Amino acid sequence: MIAKTIVKPTARLVEVFSAIQGEGLNVGTRQIFIRFGLCDLRCHFCDSAQTWDAPSVCKIERSPGLRDFEMHSNPVPLPILLQWVERQNLPSLHDSISLTGGEPLLHAPFLEQFLPEVRSLTNLPIYLETGGHRPEQLAMILPYLDSVGMDLKLPSVSGETHWTEHEKFLQLCFDANLEVFVKIIVSQRTDPGELKRSGMLVGGVHQDIPIFLQPVTPLADSEQFSQVPVLAPSPDQILEWQALMKQFVKQVRVIPQTHKMLKQM
Ligand code: SF4
């Protein structure tokens, strides 16, 4: 008889901590952030380049918001991550759990097992932040999600092009009745033709899906990895682009990265 190998689910993490969400529909709410390692995109404006490769260790906050980190080796077994989240989950403190990265969907087989358990343990809603380019992996964990913030990558700003995948991804979220919004990073180099195409794509799925235009936060010299300068758009550009996109969806909100102003992580 051949012994069956049981593979214990593990994940490569960057950090776990409690903070105030700085972007999108959940802005201002308190979340337990689980930041996963690995990303398969290379956006020019990326401020999380430390997540691209699988780190050998991760930073785990002991007490919510106190930044009293301890270091642990990767990969992390599922029951250990559950313990860390439970330790963060003080009564009435958090509004939801944020799965962020990197690209969390590169860990879809892990999430498929982790999410039902963390949900029953904490009773907190689950929010996914994603590049929105992996619909097959999204389908694996859709039943366990409550809300999704999908980045729509403009080629002129990010250097990435994923129109077809974005459309499939958004349709899956909408059909599953999830609370979903689209985040688009805009810079001085934004091509208005791409904004128009984005508006048509989102409005084509449903005009009630909100779009958040997020002026890029320029990177410090030490964070620059791309030769392409990424500069914030002018006030006139922002006003023009919001008006352009409101032709396709009902809500287009302009919000910068507020967690950087609040000095959150
Ligand atoms: S998807 Fe996110 S983590 Fe990945 S390169 Fe783009 S901005 Fe960075």
What does this molecule look like?
Substrate binds at residues 20-22, 35, 100. Belongs to the radical SAM superfamily. 7-carboxy-7-deazaguanine synthase family. This is 7-carboxy-7-deazaguanine synthase. The protein is built from eight helices and twelve strands. The mean pLDDT is 93. The chain has one domain: TIM Barrel (Alpha-Beta Barrel), CATH 3.20.20.70. With 265 residues, it is of the alpha/beta class. Helix 3 (135-141) runs parallel beside helix 5. The protein starts with 9 loop residues before the first strand and ends with a helix. It is globular, with a radius of gyration of 19 Å. The protein has a ten-stranded mixed β-sheet with strand order 5-4-2-3-7-8-9-10-11-12, covered by helices on one side. A two-stranded antiparallel sheet has the order 1-6. The structure holds iron/sulfur cluster. Iron/sulfur cluster (SF4) is lined by residues 39, 41-43, 46, 48, 51, 101-103, 131.
CATH class: Alpha Beta
Strand content: 15-25%
Distance between the termini: 52 Å
Number of alpha- plus pi-helical segments: 8
What is the 3D form?
A: globular
- Return the CATH topology: TIM Barrel
Query: Structural class, from secondary structure content?
Result: alpha/beta
CATH superfamily: Aldolase class I
In which range does the helix fraction lie? 25-40%
> Which sheet architecture does the biggest sheet show?
10 strands, mixed
Widest sheet: strand ordering: 5-4-2-3-7-8-9-10-11-12
CATH architecture type: Alpha-Beta Barrel
Give the names of the bound compounds: iron/sulfur cluster
The number of domains? 1
Q: Report the strand count.
A: 12
**What is the alpha-carbon Rg in Å?**
19 Å
Which consecutive residue ranges, at least 5 long each, have pLDDT under 50? Answer: none
* Mean pLDDT metric: 93
Domain Radical SAM core: 26-265
Pathway: Purine metabolism; 7-cyano-7-deazaguanine biosynthesis
Family: Belongs to the radical SAM superfamily. 7-carboxy-7-deazaguanine synthase family.
Catalytic activity: 6-carboxy-5,6,7,8-tetrahydropterin + H(+) = 7-carboxy-7-carbaguanine + NH4(+)
